[in-house]
Amino acid sequence: MASEMATLTVPGLLEQVPHIRQWLRGILVGWTVSAEVIADLALAVTEICKNITLHGYRDITPGTIDVRLAKYGDIIRVTILDTAPIFVPPQASLPPPHALAEGGYGLALVRSLVDEFVHDGSGTRGNCITLVKKDVKIIQL
Amino acid sequence: MVLTFHDDRGVAVIALNGGLDETRGMELGQLFDRLMAEGRRQFVIDCKAVDFIDSAGLAMLVRCFKRVRSGVGNLSLIALQPSVRRIFEMTRLDRSFDIYTDVAEAVQRLPGVQR
């Protein structure tokens, strides 16, 4: 059972993504999570939510984005739900540096930043992405 | 994010402030395009106040870098915060960009700049 939990629901719009990031940072700071983990999760959640707004809701009236944050000891789990058509994230790897790619970093970065990245499209609504960060350093106050 | 620009011995120094994301990346791209259109080819991007960068911000920096390099110019980055530097290291883009500690060092390293 989670020792700490928080949830946020926002419209699935690009301009909401910085708001989601700020909310996530605020919660994790309150949980005294290390700055590096906060930075990793802020970027990973940004990339997922941005993809939802730019791709998932591209051709339809935007639905919502639900973000659920839970802490189990030294594990942080972030669950992100949308109501967009099912989209299975590809197994992307980072572009080679010499290619100087002008894109293709997003999902590959997410996979590099978290310990688990799971997509579930089998529910009654949209996509559910779960990101897990393990061995999280908690700052003792 | 607030974008500011000043000239240092013919080098366009662009200072970023805040997060470099999808929206802010486009603002940077517009400023960069304008400066390129004015004939500028030497750039330093000051990142000391950038506390966040996402894939769109990275992509925009790569786009600017490629554009200026194709025009026989240079673009350097300075003062990356640890969280931003880490993303450059993860993507190994730190091997492609010239990254310095401050404006003075970056300007000094640019070829053809009056010293």
Please name the defining characteristics of this protein:
heterodimer, A: 141 residues, alpha+beta, Heat Shock Protein 90, 5-stranded antiparallel beta sheet, globular, B: alpha/beta, 5-stranded mixed beta sheet, 43% helix
Sequence of strands across the biggest β-sheet of chain B: 1-2-3-4-5
Rg of chain B, please?
13 Å
Q: Output the structural class of chain B.
A: alpha/beta
Name the poorly predicted regions of chain B: none
Count of the separate structural domains of chain A: 1
Task: Using the alpha-carbon principal axes, give the shape of chain B.
Answer: globular
Characterise this structure.
The complex is a heterodimer of chains A (141) and B (115). Chain A is of the alpha+beta class and 141 residues long. Chain A has a single domain, classed as Heat Shock Protein 90. A 5-stranded antiparallel sheet of chain A has the order 1-2-3-5-4, covered by helices on one side. In chain A, a hairpin with a 2-residue loop joins strand 2 and strand 3. The two termini of chain A are 23 Å apart. The relative contact order of chain A is 0.22. The mean pLDDT of chain A is 94. Chain B contains 4 helices and 5 strands, in the order ββαβαβαβα. Chain B has a 5-stranded mixed sheet with strand order 1-2-3-4-5. In chain B, helix 1 links the parallel strand 2 and strand 3. In chain B, helix 1 runs parallel beside helix 2. Chains A and B meet through helix 1, helix 2 and helix 3 of A and helix 2 and helix 3 of B.
